[in-house]
Amino acid sequence: MSTLFEHARKLDAHGQVDDFWMLVEGDTIVSTGNGQGPDAATRVDVDGRWLVPGFMDLHGHGGGGHSYDDGARAIGEALSTHRAHGTTRSVISLVANPLASLRTSLAEIADIAEADPLVLGSHLEGPFLAPGRRGAHNGEFLREPAPYEVEELIGAARGTLRQITIAPELPNAMEAIDVLVEAGVVIAIGHTEADFDQAREAFDRGARIVTHVFNAMPGIHHRAPGPVVAAFEDERVTLELILDGEHVHPDVAAMVFASAPGRVALVTDAMAAAGSHDGDYSLGSLTVSVRDGIARLRGTPTIAGSTLTQDVALRIAIQRSRIAPARAVEALTLTPARTLGLEHRHGLLAPGFAADAVFMGHDWQTLDVWADGRRL
Fold first, then answer.
1. CA angle (83 as vertex; 90, 242 as ends), nearest 5
2. Among the CATH numbers 3.20.20.140, 3.40.50.2000, 3.40.640.10, 2.60.40.3210, which is that of 55-339?
3. What is the architecture of the domain spanning 2-52+351-375?
4. Of these residues, 269, 278, 292, 356, which one is catalytic?
């Protein structure tokens, strides 16, 4: 069954094309062009609106009132919320919990990923984090990364553990990174006290992501550049950025884009309140209070994830951080795909790529979402 998307204003990491058309067969884009398109069984008139690749979120914890830690049904409900806002491919992030609970969650996510190709796998944000930089993770469940425990977690995920966040200064952390690299897991450094040299060593051992840059780590000091500058300098490293206007100032976000061109991945780090309303929610074993759209551990000033969706991050990038639209779209599409080694299939509106696309108005509001050639 062929579908022709026509009269679009295409925008992806390769730039803008007006009067764009895209022919889809099944779940794959087979040809593109501009002007008059070929015949197809179904024609979809984009009517001059933006057509961008489906967004990919490397780091999120829930949405629509549901947390990814709460099992398959909750994961499905939360994913529906983010898909309505343009996120067609998601990594399911888990907060620190007892190892047995994490193994159970990883196995559940493996089952979901097997049935749903839009789920890319799991991300363990805990438990191998620095206690002093734990953020919204329960300190009782933090631990040092013993290699045999890391191997048990890898096994529980059955090949679907996509990403893990580690504080590289912890005992055994570098050895654990070696184990994870060998298993094909993408390592992030985050929730860390690491200095510049420790971050560089982690990158040399194979770490390739900084978890939500600037948050839960040392900042930039003129005599202590820290992990952020180490990441700026290393062309192998992707920097996650939560661009909700609260976690990182929009002007600092612009500095990140300028310092690491093509290496910024806009993530949500969303908790259950994303796409929902203010109130109290659970994040793992902790309670989070959301007021005016800002999530904090109840009774503390600690930010506890976000209420962000990726289309909002795109608008903030373009309108407040003044990022060129193609670069902002790249940070939601091709950059996260490249980070996971999926850039041959995801992140562009080009032949051979998955037929994931988002229609957006000229104000960058999401109007329609397609994934694998199907309207979501």
1. 60
2. 3.20.20.140
3. Roll (2.30)
4. 269
Q: The tokens of 50 are what?
A: 């933006």
Question: In this predicted model, what pLDDT tens digit does every residue of 181-213 receive, in sequence order?
Answer: 999 999 999 999 999 999 999 999 999 999 999
φ/ψ region of 243 (left if φ > 0, alpha if ψ in -120 to 50, else beta) reads beta
SS3 101: helix
Contact 267, 242 (CB under 8 A): yes
pLDDT at position 283 is 83
Place of tokens 């979901």: 112
Main-chain dihedrals φ then ψ at residue 242, nearest 5 degrees: -95, 105
- How far apart are alpha carbons 18 and 221 in whole angstroms? 45
Verify whether residue 269 is a known catalytic residue.
yes
Residue 351 has pLDDT above 90, yes or no: yes
Domain ranges of the chain: 2-52+351-375, 55-339
Query: Residue 144's Cα: distance from chain center in Å?
Result: 25
